[in-house]
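Hey,

Quick one before I head out. I ran the complex with magnesium ion overnight. Inputs first:
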Amino acid sequence: MIRRLLARLISGRPSSEPRIYHSGDHPVRRDAVPRGARMVTEKLHEAGFKAFVVGGAVRDLLLGMPPKDFDIATDATPEEVKPLFRRAYIIGRRFRLVHVHAGAEVLEVSTFRAPQTKEDATDEHGRLLSDNVYGTQAEDAARRDFTINALYFDPASEEVWDYVGGVADIRARRLRLIGAPVTRFREDPVRMLRAVRLAAKCGLAMDPKTAAPIPKLANLIQNVPPARLFEEMQKLLLSGHAAETLAALRAHGLSHGLLPLLDMILEQPLGTRFIEVALAGTDARVRDGKPVSPAFLFATLLWHEVLQQWNAGKARGDKPLPALLEAMDRVLDAQAERISIPRRFEAAIKEIWSLQPRFEQRAGARPYRLLEHERFRAAYDFLALRGQSGEVPAALVQWWTRFQDAGDAERQQMLRPEEAPKRSRRSRGRGRKRREDGGAPPPPEAH
Ligand code: ATP
Ligand code: MG
């Protein structure tokens, strides 16, 4: 019996009976769960239903990390959940769940679901097309991705219910898929990205059986709808471990086709430096709890493609600004086929890029106008990255750093002389620039 149980736990196959870890067997106390989530589970209990905190929150609490959000799983249907709360809304058409508002918190309450087994539930690659059948708690555990994500915490009893050996995996700091890895990755290829992200974020080692099939299945990512990929990429890049995660994606053969040419970009000395600097900066901000802008991040990841096409356009004789605008559109269009970056981000990304040439203009009223631009800060931070990676001279970045904080008189002094009529513009502009920048070469993109 014990041997059977052990065998089952080791194989990662879900059991129909949970192993229950009592309050003394694990370190998570109920006061680690915010009031709103506790209130929701209590109300559901009072109404005679099961209710647990589930998923990422239980995993993070057991690992001693602060959870992002507290999701709740119950055997009550959405129609049974809704009337129990004053502010509760059923959302989702295909997969219905309830959003319960408690003060400033919004709790997601979902009904236990069963894995899909019907023949027509998958496409020709084995990808699940729907996932919306209510089931038992054991089935709900089985349809989740990793053992450590399938744990249920009851704040009232402080028990952890484990159908899949997740607690043992947490203790061993091991990331393991529930069930047969190849099938589970085929069902949903995004799980490969989640595996890499969660291993990096939580400091876990991937179980060898989970890791083994990834390089062979990596191309299945191509079948994932672009909007879903965008969502996952955003999570990945804003995890606070983006640099590490992207390196791991490459190591597992997953980076290809995610961001087109990502591999190529990372192999160019300038591109590597640029993205490294950008990701290190973002990771530091996330870890310090500061806000980060997805638009800025995607602008950095795609910049070297834009730069390449921009330079090619200029080499063909196109004027700098139209060449830049065309390069931007091309890169974003190519990107849309793989990861659809939402429109609201696209506008901001374009602004960050298209403001770059304006930093070269340091005469007359132009620098003042640029300072006033509502996206100046992001564009300046972007310029600073270009400086750090060696793409533009440090002196240009320093000039803007000083100009921002300088008083009126100093600003006037810093301004470059207005450019003379076209004929003599080139030679004069260059000679002066070089001297004032302390001998630094003119920026490669000077125009
Ligand atoms: P994070 O901390 O990034 O939010 P998470 O594990 O909570 O990580 P969510 O996307 O919020 O990630 O998912 C909540 C839960 O839903 C997971 O813990 C897991 O149990 C389940 N889940 C999420 N994505 C999948 C998937 N692709 N396949 C199966 N189960 C999934
Ligand atoms: Mg979550």
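The chain is about 50% helix and 10% strand.

Talk tomorrow,
K.
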